Amino acid sequence: MSDVKEGRLRGTGWYISITGFWREFRKHRIGVIGVLALVLFVVMAVGAPIFATHDPSPSIKVGPRFMAPQWTEIFDPTGVVTKNYLLDPNLDSDSIGEIVVEGSSGEFTGARNFAASPAENSNVTFEWTHIANTSIEFRSPPDPNGDLPDTLDFIYYAQTFTWEYERLPKDVNITVSYNIVTTGDFLTNEYGGKMFELMLWVIDSSGNWTRIFDSVPPYTGSHVDRPVDLGFLDIVEGWDGMIDEGDGQEDPTDRLTVAVGIAPTYLFTSSASGPEPWTYYNGSVTATITHMECVAFGDYFGILGTTDKGADAWSQLLFGSRISLYIGLVAASLSTAVGVAVGMISGYFGGKVDEVTMRVVDFLLVIPRLPLLMVLAAFLGPSVDTIIIVIVILGWTGTSRLIRSQVLAEKNKSYVEAARAIGATDTYIIFKHILPNVTPLLFADVTLGVVAAILSESALSFLGLTDPSEPSWGRMLADAQIGGAFGNGAWWVVIFPGLMITAISLAFTFIGHTLDQVLNPRLRER
């Protein structure tokens, strides 16, 4: 055979080995199933930022607690759909919403401004220009509920929508995005910012105004996103009149209005050193509204519902796969490396080295694993790196005993004796001759080590010994148990994390079992 041809064969040797291995591996259906499942988990982990619909943090509320998954709505066709009910949240349609000036004052102006390019925002602008000694008519007597402005003169922008359901929403979040610019005394006087307010209202079709937000100074002219989570009484006040319980309904129509506006306030002079009456002020207030939302939450939300804290369960489940795969692979790799090193040294050199290392292994094997994991995790602190260190400390013992037994069998074979006879060093014999012969046993051991690491992390998370800000499947189960998921019938925050832990453990177990059958010479001969 020519040198060129021999070089070509050597160059393709790795390819022949890989294809031969895969040809043998795919004969085992259980291994192929494990590989396909593992690929799905890897895609889930890598694509988590893309597939997640909300912030995965367990403490970030996106809706009411324990909302069922949206797809379960098929069993309840009358259920309230969770969505933004305002038809024009970006204020880019001149046919939706209206600007209203109340009272007889000419000091208020308003305008709709539509974006000239995609980089700009459509908006609604209010302006109140006040000249000293110009009168504004105050409400007399004042509104006893404090929902209406102090004055009869004010301006607001309103959007109206229809409520189609005979149920109250579980929760409502109304958001307004705005900035406020002041001039004159409203800017320079220390009390200028208290002479007006930007207000947010819910108005039912009976004409009842419910104020849910009013701004407070200072006003810097910067953009503000102000979400308002309505309380139960505010929801009842706004929505209950549209619900027909068989005896008619209080409100004449099923329409509800969300309004935002600015109005002067009455600032009392409490002492001689206090603020001057508003009549002495000169200046202007310009409020620009760029976005409005009214998200009403029904009984269902998202792909997997919400958790005990109202967080998105789907996003947590996706990012939990990252934690499980990262901890499982890193911890198993480090545990295997430590176990191989200890097993090789102990088995090859024997004597006192073997005696000391095996007694350490026996000691660690005798101690109950989970209590020791709990103690170490609590002592070192809750973090991902800590969990990996804890798992590595206790996870190498089984590998070391496996490798030691194989090294004891290999070191007395003729090829090792021949290597010694020609003057090979111990290091050369260990890495060149013995290690390649025990390596096939490691693949199955590593995959099973990944399973053990994932289960250990899940157990520590369930016991509250990991970082509570990190989304993981064990943490989801812990939060479900603490938050009363069983009592509230929130099965989705228990079943799906449990299924993920089971599925990823089975995937690695199937792969490890198949690797053992393919790479272990004794099993392959059978």
How would you describe this protein?
The chain is of the alpha+beta class and 526 residues long. It folds into two domains: 55-60 and 307-525, MetI-like fold; 83-297, Galactose-binding domain-like (Jelly Rolls). The protein is built from 16 helices and eleven strands. The protein has helices at residues 3-11, 13-25, 29-46, 48-51, 185-188, 232-239, 313-349, 351-366, 369-380, 384-395, 397-410, 414-421, 426-462, 473-482, 492-519, 521-525; strands at residues 83-84, 98-102, 108-113, 123-130, 154-162, 171-184, 196-204, 209-214, 224-229, 255-264, 283-297. Strands 1, 3, 4, 6, 9 and 11 form a six-stranded antiparallel β-sheet that branches. Strands 2-5-10-7-8 form a five-stranded antiparallel β-sheet, with helices on one face. α7 runs antiparallel to α8 (351-366), α12 (414-421) crosses α13 (426-462) and α13 (426-462) packs antiparallel against α15 (492-519). The chain is elongated, with a radius of gyration of 35 Å.
What is the compact description of this entry?
With 526 residues, the protein is an alpha+beta fold. It has helices spanning 3-11, 13-25, 29-46, 48-51, 185-188, 232-239, 313-349, 351-366, 369-380, 384-395, 397-410, 414-421, 426-462, 473-482, 492-519, 521-525; strands at 83-84, 98-102, 108-113, 123-130, 154-162, 171-184, 196-204, 209-214, 224-229, 255-264, 283-297.
Question: How many helices in DSSP terms?
Answer: 16
Question: What is the string of helix and strand elements?
Answer: HHHHEEEEEEHEEEHEEHHHHHHHHHH
- pLDDT < 50 runs, ≥5 residues: 1-16
How many structural units, i.e. domains? 2
Q: What is the arithmetic mean of pLDDT?
A: 85
Q: Any idea of the CATH topology of the largest domain? A: MetI-like fold
Radius of gyration using CA atoms only: 35 Å
As a percent range, the share of helical residues equals 40-55%
- The gross shape turns out to be elongated
**CATH class value of the largest domain:** Mainly Alpha
Number of strands: 11
Give the CATH H-level superfamily of the largest domain.
Answer: MetI-like
Quaternary organisation: single chain
> How far apart are the first and last residues' alpha carbons, in Å?
35 Å
